[in-house]
Write a structure and sequence with these properties.
The complex is a heterodimer.
Chain A lengths: L1 H28 L25 E8 L10 H9 L1 E8 L4 H10 L6 E5 L1 H10 L8 H7 L1 H4 L4 H11 L9 E4 L7 E5 H6 L8 H15 L17 H6 L6 H4 L2 E2 L6 E2 L6 H15 L12 H9 L5 E4 L2 H11 L8 E3 L12 E3 L5 E8 L5 H13 L3 H9 L6 E4 L2 E4 L27 H7 L1 H10 L5 E3 L9 H27 L7 H13 L2 H16 L1
Parallel strand pairs in A: 1-2, 1-3, 10-14
Antiparallel strand pairs in A: 3-11, 4-11, 5-8, 5-9, 6-7, 12-13
Chain B lengths: L6 H32 L3 H6 L12 H8 L2 H32 L6 H13 L4 H10 L7 H4 L6 H12 L3 H9 L4 H12 L1 H17 L2 H6 L8 H11 L3 H6 L3 H10 L2 H34 L3
Helix pairs in contact in B: 1-16, 3-16, 4-8, 4-11, 4-13, 8-11, 8-16, 9-10, 11-16, 13-16
Classes of the chains: A alpha/beta, B mainly alpha.
Chain lengths: 537, 297
Amino acid sequence: MKKRLLLIVLAMALLAGVLAACTKSGDQTGTTPTTAPTQTPEGEGTSENKYAKELTITLARRGDSRSVEEDLFSPYIKEKFNIVFEVTDINNNDFVTKMNLLLASGEAPDINTAQRPEFMLNEWTEAGYFRGYTREEIKNRMPNYYAQYTEEEWESIWPAISHSDGKSYYFPSRRAETINMAWLYREDIFNKLNLEFPESTDELLEVMRTLKKETGKVPFVSANSGDVLWAFTGFLQAFGIPELAPREMSYVDPVTGEFVPYAFTTDTFREHVIFMNKLYEEGLIWQEFATGTTDQVNAAISQGNHMIAWSYPAKIETELNKLSRNENPEASWNWAKVMPSSNPERATYFKANPYYNADGVGFSADASDEVIERFMDYMDWLHTEEGMAFRTYGIEGVTYKKEGNNYVFTEQMTSPVKSEGKTLTNYGFVTVGRQHPNLNEYYYPYLTELEKTFFNREGYYHFISPAMVYTSEESSELADITTSLHQTAKEYYARFIMGHVDVEDDKEWENYIQTMKKLGLDRFIEIRTAVYERNNK
Amino acid sequence: MVEDRSLSSKILDIIVHTTMIFMLVATLYPVLNVLASSLSSSAANDAGIVSIYPIGLTFDNYRMVFEAGKVPKAFTNSVIYTVVGTAVNLLLTSSFAYALSRKHLALRKLYMTIAIIPMYFSGGLIPTFLLVKNLGLYDSMWALILPGAISITNFIIMRTFFQGIPAELEESASLDGANDFVILFKIIIPLSKAVFFTIGLYYAVGHWNSWFSAMVYFKDSSKYPLQMILREMIIAANSMKDAATSEDFNTAADIINLNVKGLKYATLFISMFPMLMIYPFIQKHFMKGVMMGSLKG
């Protein structure tokens, strides 16, 4: 009995010790600030002594670990700004997990270079992990950064990047290209069969039938086993639903200006699914679209399938020609100068990019004012001519040379026209900031051609994402509903296309709508509509 | 011994051999496929036509893997973490297990109870991270080794094994003047080779295959073990879309440089190879160690 009592006492003492340790640790983490510290006034120090003190700035970067062979970046930045960067590379799949750990434990890096709305930006902002700035503060503090967008562009960007408190916690740089997707096709086969790229979905169906009949191969190979709603986004667009609808779910019709709060229960969506079902039944699309892996898709393309694609012209050289030439060395892909539409008389849709990159910079609330000030100086410089050239091309004479007005990568470097060679990251570069416009003008002339082809073309329209700034209550209520709706929509999408459920049967379609309603479709529509009206009217 | 030639025995033999052959093929095929893919040309890999022999034989993937900056360094890191980690594991686990296997140890039940609690309740990711950070282990090799220095399952197997060693051996040794350390090193450890090899193998495989702790506790990617690099490469297989959609040429170039399928398989094979080589030498101890440790609870 005595022994048992002794055991109990010892166990309780141990427990008390553990609890005491936890309390101490809790106290330490409780110091995370909930409001952004105030900024130091501008103009502090003269330009000569402004950077007298060396500052170490910790920085999180999304992507795989990079091997640095010769560090040219650090000495340059050290000399110019007296900054030493400590970079943590976080794999894309682990980014949110690791950032959550770092933020919760007070180990947050001073700068997050991969601040993205879909990476819990709202939650992190609400928790006070990042510093927010008003548009005016940004204009004063980083004039070169601010000047990368016109005032008119800021009018559309600011509502999209700012939080409900009127400040932004996410600072993306200007996106290099305004349009980078198109319909691609096997030019060699189209020429041989004397086919024109279709401008309507009816013509598309006929062309695909011909391709199938003449080659015996599957004309369109695509799969997305993770989320089948992403498998046929080009076909969604052909029916007037944005290519990014699986992510954004709501959109504004560019012809009528009507807000569509949920894309996957409309009559337009039903027409799209009927069309896809027809393609599936006739074997015009790959039968494994709901389960295929990237390796299987590549194998199918390497066997001569896939003659039409909705994709990036950048992939023609890096992927499509390479794969198709495994079967036919003469294979040659090109991008189409037209796009198919289900109703070309009404509108043809193309995809234009937003003005800004998806990744932006986030300034940690835990970082010192001095660190933030210094980084802002650096970031502002990255948006000058000199800074953009440095960040895009590296060091003159080593990684690039000037040819007239053009910047050209040197021989040992990889470039858009040469996939072998070193990258700037091999020289230790940390590439935040804006890509120099000359790179696309010089190396990717097709991007300019894409712009010229589709922008300002009669009958061609592109979608513009509406600003949707949610309150935390709205976000949290939508989060649960969205997951259930999305899960059900993608299941039905696959079943409709494969013909397991007859999409043309009104009763079946009504069943689908009723299922979605039970999962909260009406409430989803109500919240999204209210948010849209609040932010856009 | 009389050989059983009855029909039922022959049927049983056929069933046993068929099952074993099936299991052998199921186990061996993926290994051969990885090896063949790592030695095949990129076109053959893209076309998905590689099975168990290389098509378009090339050693370029291995050359590139060893020339590339990250893999040799990560391989060395993995070897260090595995060797040091396993040594620490064995030292601490065996010390703890030996002590608790001795019946005369005071408060033995209390220690056992305390040891068993973490088997049912874990601290959770963030508290564990905070603990590691506050102990000053963040971004250090010890963050991968010390938090898991004693696996309770392995400790129980070892303790049970030690309990099976007759107490008379110790008694006679102490009569001959041996102290506790002499008994441990001269009698107990030589008699426990099987369990040391077995538990050592468990720990070594655990360290070799571990990536999550490295992801959580390392800030500096030059400290990553091989599995972490391998994981990045496997994830990069799905990154062609990222490369094409990347808003920035330099980011796209980095992704494309990583995304060579043959390289992925070569790295995969390199990561499998050391463990494949270790197993045959430890196998004879392995069966004995597990069986002896697991019979008594």
